[in-house]
Amino acid sequence: MKTKILLVDDETDLEDLFSKRFRREINANEYEFVFVHDGLEALNTLEQQPDIDLILSDINMPGMDGLSLLAKLPDINPMVRAVMVTAYGDMDNIRTAMNLGAFDFLTKPINFNDLQLTIEKTRRYVNQLRETAELKAVDEMKTRFFANITHELRTPLTMIVSPVDKLLETPDLPTPYQQHLTLVQRNARQLLRLINQLLDINKLEAQQMDLVNEVGDLPGFIGQIVDLFRPSADIKNLALTFQTDMSPGNYLFDAGKWEKILYNLLSNAIKFTPAGSITVSLQQTATGVRLIVRDTGIGIPADKIVHVFDRFYQIDNARARAYEGTGIGLALVKELTSRLGGTIRVESQADSTGERSGTEFVLEIPVQLVSGYVDAQPVAAPTLVVDPPSTPTGIEPSFHPKSSDQAALVLVVEDNAELREFIVAELATSYRIRAAANGYEGWILAKEELPDVIISDLMMPRMDGYALIDRLRTDLATDHIPVMLLTASLEPDSRLKGLEYGADEYLTKPFHVGELRLRLRNLLSRQQKLRDHYRQQLAQPDTTETSETVQDQFLRRLYQLVEQRLDDSTLSVEWLADQMAMSRKTLYLKVHNLTHLPPNELIRQYRLRKAIDLLRLGHNASETAYMVGFESPSYFTKVFREFYQQTPTDYVKR
Ligand code: ATP
Ligand code: MG
């Protein structure tokens, strides 16, 4: 790479000297020299040629001297570095030059080897400076982009939230409309809240958030906020209490910021507390108030606690995350608290048994009690909207009157309660539905009911989609159930991995309901074809397929067992279930799932199919009847005729 050097000296013969000494470098395009004769000229050149890497400058020159040039450099080109050249022993000027920011100095007469080393060193340094500056510029651009995009998202989101709010006020809104609109409202609000928090945090970091002092009853205000969280606490059966030793009165405080702080601390407390209580207390201190939010939740492990105020930090960042959120709540709380001139600290006890665990956030914030008239806006009632947490996980059997008993049974496994309810509501008109909130519950339900198809999320607490498929595929009872995986597109290889595990279909979130329905129908019709195929194998006397060539390993095993006792008319479904290590119910469901036949009928048809083979081998009808386990030849003949539309004797004749 070429190094461009500006040589500033009033001695005109230097030009010649340098050109000769560095002829090789110049010819090889490694160095390029630009010659000027005083400081002023140097400044002009620097302005016109910003790609100059370094300056070699004399100190004493007529016109503008080297030291004055040096002093002006940061304004003209902050990246360029100067090496000063002066007489040996000119210590005063050298000291001044160094203090003005010269990078290095050389003395005359110039030692050219030394000069070249100095040029290289300076050049490397300038390169580093430029790289750092570039990185910084990129970083700033990203931040600006982030801020812009968040800002841009806010307007359209607001334009979703307000019309939906309006629509929801319509009297006598039909229930499905109300349900769907409520879903839109909740989700849009959640997005809007996230966007607002991101904007807030940006503003706080750029120190652009103003303090607004309002006057109002602080204890009363906090009591109101706590009350807004009561429905959420009730849903999770948590005791929520507010206590204060402060008397009502007029206080000066920034209500908006207090609201955001409490919103985050209380949402966290509710989110991370499976059982027990949450206490908010407010105490008067010498300089303001102390706010304590305490919960009996899961706690924060000691080694993680230092990070909880970091932006985007979440303790549980595993794929199978049990809690929703983005990890900006506490970062915002911390910034807001310090903007209010306060401090926050946290103490926590994490305990795997859940007996003594809990978390306590303690905030000390200056607040002023005022008496008499103050020139400040009165505090308005809190405006925040608290959506109760998604319904607690639990197996929710969802029946729908419209779908008949004949409809296919679909199991929906999804941890996000809203998405789950949405899918259930969408499919319930055409299918029978069961729903589970995580892979484990899904697995239990799948074994219990052997659904015709499973729609499963990938990332879920307790057991994720992969693990669920793995269990399904390694259990003889469930290995045939087709699975459609729902995944977020964030995980690029999840598709491949899902297919490896044995998923049959794949849908990327966000998905279109129409596509979901279509793919579901395809899966079910594939199942139906397989079912028809298995039944054909028995019903078509001319197929050559035998029990050994049946693809499904469950059916193969079942046929083998029937084969062992083919001539035994007492062979029972109980015995088969025993042999297959399944309950009778599971055996029934599995056989029905694969063939749409009850097990007894399957056995009977298998016997009839075997009878064909035996007749072909030359056995007569009554021999055959006993060999395939019929109690009497006449009954055998009757059943045979019903099934194949001809008598055994006719069949032999043909
Ligand atoms: P967000 O607030 O953006 O919705 P979040 O709640 O995960 O997401 P923060 O509020 O910043 O993020 O909290 C960071 C992490 O600290 C949480 O993910 C959780 O692991 C832990 N944490 C916060 N509050 C509590 C609490 N009361 N009990 C246990 N853990 C907590
Ligand atoms: Mg939070």
TrEMBL record:
EC number: 2.7.13.3
Pfam families recorded: HATPase_c, HisKA, HTH_18, Response_reg
Identification of the protein by name: histidine kinase
Domain Response regulatory: from-to ranges: 4-123, 409-524
InterPro entries from the UniProt entry: CheY-like_superfamily, HATPase_C_sf, HATPase_dom, His_kinase_dom, HisK_dim/P_dom, Homeodomain-like_sf, HTH_AraC, Sig_transdc_His_kin-like_C
Reaction catalysis annotation: ATP + protein L-histidine = ADP + protein N-phospho-L-histidine
PANTHER family, A to Z: HYBRID SIGNAL TRANSDUCTION HISTIDINE KINASE C, TWO-COMPONENT HISTIDINE KINASE
Cited CDD domains: HATPase_EvgS-ArcB-TorS-like (cd16922), HisKA (cd00082), REC_YesN-like (cd17536)
Boundaries of every Histidine kinase domain copy: 148-369
PROSITE patterns in alphabetical order: HIS_KIN (PS50109), HTH_ARAC_FAMILY_2 (PS01124), RESPONSE_REGULATORY (PS50110)
Enzyme class label: transferase
Superkingdom of source: Bacteria
Recorded GO MF terms: DNA-binding transcription factor activity; phosphorelay sensor kinase activity; sequence-specific DNA binding
Residues annotated as domain HTH araC/xylS-type: 556-654
Keyword tags: Kinase, Phosphoprotein, Transcription, Transcription regulation, Transferase
Residues with the 4-aspartylphosphate modification: D58, D457
